[in-house]
Amino acid sequence: MGNFLQLVHNENIKIYKRARSWVMLGILVASAILISILWLSFGGRDTSMWEVMSTESMILFMLLTIFAVVIAASSVAEEFASGTIKLLLIRPWSRSKILLSKYVSIMLFAVLLAAVLFASTWLINWICFGINSAVSLDETQQMLLFPGSSGPFAYMLMYYGMKLLSLAVTLTLAFMISTIFRSGALAIGLSLFLLLGVNNFVLLLGYLEYEWIDYLLFMHLDLTKYIGATRLEDGSNLWFSLGILGAYYVIFVALTWYVFNKRDVAA
Amino acid sequence: MAQPVVRLQNVSKRIGGRTIIDRLTLDLPLGEVFGFLGPNGSGKTTTIRMMVGLMSMTEGDIWINGHSIAKEYEKAIRYVGAIVENPEMYKYLSGYDNLMHYARMIPGITEHRVHEVVKLVGLEGRIQDKVRTYSLGMRQRLGVAQAILHKPQLLILDEPTNGLDPAGIRELRDYLRLLAKEEGIAIFVSSHLLSEMELMCDRVAIIQGGKLIDVRTIRGAESRAETARVIIEVDRPQGAIEALQASGLAPVQEGEQAIAIETDREGIAAANAALVAGGIKVYGIRAHVKSLEDQFLEVTGGESIG
Lengths: 267, 306
Ligand SMILES: Nc1ncnc2c1ncn2[C@@H]1O[C@H](COP(=O)(O)OP(=O)(O)OP(=O)(O)O)[C@@H](O)[C@H]1O
Ligand SMILES: [Mg+2]
What we know:
The complex is a heterodimer of chains A (267) and B (306).
Chain A: H1 4-16, H2 19-43, H3 49-82, H4 84-89, H5 95-130, H6 137-144, H7 152-181, H8 184-205, H9 238-262
Chain B: E1 4-15, E2 18-29, E3 33-37, H1 44-51, E4 59-64, E5 67-68, H2 73-77, E6 80-83, H3 95-104, H4 111-120, H5 136-148, E7 154-158, H6 166-183, E8 186-191, H7 194-200, E9 203-208, E10 211-217, H8 221-225, E11 228-234, H9 237-246, E12 252-253, E13 258-263, H10 265-277, E14 282-288, H11 292-300
The site of adenosine-5'-triphosphate has 11 residues of chain B, from α1.
């Protein structure tokens, strides 16, 4: 049989040969620059580069999630919408592997987005606030409340790591919706609605005393709160959250692959 | 008949209680262009979808080179190249990138082969352009290119002449016949263009309402030997009739200036010789061969979609 990497290569081409992916990367970098410049002009240089980087990352990761969901949701849905799915599937590859190649290329794109965001916020803020910094590392530590003794760079890495974990679950959800309903718009809409809308609403639900609320996906998508302390005062703990995310992840993947393998392609 | 490369056995498809394909059984040998003819909605595309594994079968199975499409899909499908309905490609990629995309999915396809195929379908001039800018006929050619890229043993084409200009149709027809004869592959073409099938195919299956109703041979000795009604335009019909009766034929008068006989190819030559010898002026000879279209309408009863 052939080489699976060739399938991933094909899917990468479908992502990177289109202008929209580059526009997304461009917007991400431009937004980082914009926020830093605004901060610099209104707040002055009296800030730690890590504080700005952390704030920027928090805001822009939202944007990044939207972009990644758009790519995840369109991968399968567009093949159906354009009819190219027919010529894609009639090759000596199982449907599972073709779907996997799409999934891998989406995850790679998400990692690329995160890497670009990390690198650009780090570089921009080093230039704007880091060179001959007016703020000492101790002050930074106090301002950001870095847990433990880890340095700010290590903290940011952990922050991105946690964000990427929950992003993977979100993207798998979007991928599932688009595969089951073969509609990119629906997948984008539904995932973002669940994420941005319900996510905030669910925080209110958290005050209710129902047992099942602990098992909702959306109660566990923010993993960054566990950096430095795997057990929090409100009773949540990292391993329980990871367990819940893992369980949802397995269900999403199983459903997606099952439906894609079974489906009659009559597009 | 050569060894069958494709075997459909009792293939049925039911969707939501409706039977779309009803116990279809067919054998396709190598080296033959096989036509699949049927009115709109008769189940041609559905059959093709099942042959390439895009749709599951409710009953029966399809074997390609001895491999079951239902059970050993990856093995079976590697011998198949196909266009299913319109050849949709990635519009934001160039024709060349599209072909490379499919080339990567099958081991052993070199860039050289890709260029060879591009030349074959006559797209050299535009292959680096985005597919978005292609005309329907150019897309159809690109569709044929991706189907033959890996030198399949079975080529399945769903209405391949759709959108092609007369020269393109002719080229495709000649090329398909060449592929069948020289490379010895099996070609399965669906169409409702009856005259087209007549020129292209060795055998034609007629399907209606999901049922196979007839399989006919188009080419070869059989059809040559068939008799046909021949109309001969002459200056003196009465004289012509006498001259032909003398040579053992049974002509009848057909209008003012013509006679008609029932005969085969050899009979036409003999009749002409007799007329000329009898001093009759012959203005024209027309054989009224029953076309596939007539046969088709006869068999399907000229029914509407259903
Ligand atoms: N996914 C589907 N669900 C339900 N019915 C379907 C589906 N696909 C096709 N059909 C029905 O199956 C029948 C055969 O359709 P098919 O597309 O195979 O016809 P066709 O012979 O290719 O027609 P045409 O010449 O118009 O291309 C039609 O009556 C159609 O309505
Ligand atoms: Mg059709």
